[in-house]
């Protein structure tokens, strides 16, 4: 699976690559923090990995779940993001 790896530091990348060797995921390292202006960089990725300094607020998660993409309208229903969206929508409906 292709994974957009936001803001991973060089010293973390070596360890992540080593741990991923037996899993075979395609880790694509992005040298930027995840946030409202960079969420579109996840276009085409079924999964996103974030780190402590990334912004993962409601706006960013909704953008990822909606598939806010400039270059791709990839269906993300099978991704972690869409799973979150389904759970969140259910929570909003039950609290309304």
What does this structure look like?
- This protein has 96 residues and is an alpha/beta fold.
- It has a single domain, classed as Rossmann fold (3-Layer(aba) Sandwich).
- It has three helices and three strands, in the order βαββαα.
- A three-stranded parallel sheet has the order 2-1-3, covered by helices on one side.
How do the helices and strands line up, and which of them pair or pack?
Elements: E1 2-6, H1 10-20, E2 26-30, E3 47-49, H2 58-66, H3 80-95
Parallel strand pairs: 1-2, 1-3
Helix pairs in contact: 2-3
Query: Helical element count?
Result: 3
Spatial separation of the terminal alpha carbons: 36 Å
Number of strand elements: 3
Arithmetic mean of pLDDT: 77
CATH class: Alpha Beta
How do the strands of the widest beta sheet line up side by side? 2-1-3
Morphology: globular
Give the name of the CATH superfamily. Answer: NAD(P)-binding Rossmann-like Domain
Computed Rg? 14 Å
CATH architecture: 3-Layer(aba) Sandwich
Structurally, the number of domains stands at: 1
| SSE arrangement, N to C | EHEEHH
Q: Could you say what the CATH topology is called? A: Rossmann fold
Largest sheet: 3 strands, parallel
SS-derived structural category: alpha/beta
Poorly predicted spans = 68-80
């Amino acid at each position: 699976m292709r994974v957009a790896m936001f803001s991973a530091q060089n010293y973390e990348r070596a360890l992540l690559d080593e741990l991923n060797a037996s899993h075979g995921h395609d880790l694509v390292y992005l040298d930027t923090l995840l946030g409202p202006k960079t969420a579109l960089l996840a276009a085409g990725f079924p999964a996103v990995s974030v780190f402590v300094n990334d912004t993962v607020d409601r706006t960013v998660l909704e953008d990822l779940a909606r598939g806010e993409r400039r270059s791709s309208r990839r269906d993300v229903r099978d991704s972690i993001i869409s799973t979150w969206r389904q759970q969140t929508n259910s929570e909003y409906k039950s609290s309304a």
